[in-house]
Design a protein that fits this description.
Radius of gyration: 22 Å
Number of strands: 18
Strand order of the largest sheet: 2-1-5-6-7-4
Strand content: 15-25%
Largest sheet: 6 strands, antiparallel
Bound molecules: adenosine-5'-diphosphate, magnesium ion
Structural class: alpha+beta
Order of helices and strands: EEEHHEHEEEEEHEEHHHEEEHEHEHEEH
Length: 400
């Protein structure tokens, strides 16, 4: 699990150290830096997956090649499957503090701590570049493992190799058909940043068993992923059940929703005819239910298009995933999501220590972060101005 993320000269962050927990909520004003936190992690992952991020084995190779610091063709890949951040000029924090020589550029640094291990990557902020060249890596060494006699190896951080999901705020909208990309959905078990592979994943993995524990919905027909997904979806939208089928001879899968018809029999309906929220939240439900212990799930506004009760239940689902060893980091504007998490703690689903709250109150020149804590009763120790106080503020005016 990632315990700490350090961002230096990265977008809105001049220098920020952010504690992360099994379940982390990023809240706060628009444009205050919440998504940038998810982007920092996705950027590392994207660079690693493209082979651009020096990790294990690098030190030995570098030593053999007589390299001290810079590593050719390695660095932060700004534009890829997970994030498109533009160029070095876009990513470099505009208010950097380094004193620089005439030809020097300020460094951008991202660091991750997992338990006792700390990993840091420093790149050069080339203004026009899409791959920001690596200047330095700082990785913990291991003297164990099969290749140890050849020289020191570096640990590979587990968030780079463990199963991973990242769902953007902008997700799939209701459609009759969804792509059937075997390589992404089945080979890599990735649902897509817009959740576009969730339906195909469900079609292929529908009979997989959801791990025993709080993720298993007590009212589901069975432990299978499809039944569990249908049961949780039923909580978010009462009375619904879902079906994902491949269309023979095509590259698409179709999704249909069933509702208990007024005449008793279940009536099947196309996604376009059942409302936006259901389709929008499906990838979130599949991401939580299919996540394995040790995996990382990044969710941007998972509450979008859900009614308040559904938002609370969605938070309970995410809390259940966290309780089963999945690290969940989500950006949210919803007090119902916050309350769902508080309820999960009060009901004993999560310990207070497992929940990390951050409130970003960006002032346009950088991120300022306050981190309220939740106690075992689900109570919160501080309510900084702007932190989910709008209901109270409005009521004051209505009643006063
Ligand atoms: N290179 C940069 N230097 C300084 N601030 C930046 C830079 N790039 C983006 N920002 C700021 O980051 C904020 C957007 O952050 P984002 O994470 O998208 O916000 P949100 O909290 O809405 O998810 C904006 O205020 C923007 O001005
Ligand atoms: Mg955002």
């Amino acid at each position: 699990m990632i315990d700490l993320l350090t961002m230096h000269n990265f977008k809105a962050f001049q220098h920020t150290e952010l504690r992360l927990g099994p379940l982390t909520l990023l809240t706060g004003l628009n444009s205050s830096g919440k998504s940038s936190v998810l982007q920092a992690l996705a950027l590392l992952r994207q660079s690693y997956e493209a082979g651009d991020l020096a990790v294990a084995g690098w030190l030995r190779e570098a030593q053999q090649a007589g390299l001290a610091t810079s590593v050719a063709n390695q660095g932060f890949l700004l534009n890829g499957e997970l994030v498109g951040l533009g160029t070095g000029e876009d990513v470099l924090h505009e208010d950097f503090t380094e004193d620089l020589g005439p030809d020097e550029r300020p460094p951008i640094r991202l660091g991750v701590t997992e338990g006792p291990y700390r990993y840091t990557w420093t790149v050069e902020s080339e203004p026009e570049q899409n791959l920001l060249p690596l200047l330095d890596v700082d990785l913990p060494l291991t003297s164990e493992g099969p290749s140890a006699p050849a020289g020191p190896e570096a640990h590979t951080p587990s968030f780079l190799t463990a199963p991973f999901q990242y769902l953007h705020a902008d997700r799939i909208s209701p459609a009759q058909f969804y792509p059937r990309d075997h390589q992404v959905a089945i080979g890599r078990s990735f649902l897509g940043v817009r959740g576009e592979h969730a339906v195909n994943y469900l079609r292929h993995h529908g009979e997989d068993t959801v791990a025993a524990g709080p993720l298993r919905h007590p009212k589901a027909a069975s432990d299978s992923l499809i039944s569990q997904t249908a049961a949780w979806m039923g909580d978010l939208c009462p009375g619904v059940d879902i079906e994902a089928v491949a269309i023979k001879g095509t590259d698409v899968v179709s999704l249909s929703y069933g509702f208990q018809g007024t005449v008793g029999a279940t009536k099947r309906r196309r996604p376009g005819n059942v409302g936006f929220g259901l389709t929008y939240v499906l990838p979130v439900v599949v991401a939580c239910l299919s996540a394995q212990r040790g995996s990382l799930v990044l969710l941007e506004n998972p509450e979008a298009h859900l009614h308040p009760q559904g938002q609370t239940r969605m938070a309970m689902l995410a809390a259940s995933a966290a309780a089963q060893g999945v690290q969940v980091i989500m950006e949210t504007h919803s007090d119902h999501v916050l309350n769902g998490v508080r309820l999960a703690v009060k009901q004993g689903g999560l310990t207070p220590e497992q929940v990390v709250l951050h409130y970003f109150r960006g002032n346009g020149t950088g991120a300022e972060i306050v981190s309220p804590r939740v106690n075992a009763d689900g109570r919160i120790d501080q309510w900084p101005a702007g932190f989910f106080d709008e209901l109270e503020n409005t009521l004051d005016q209505l009643i006063g």
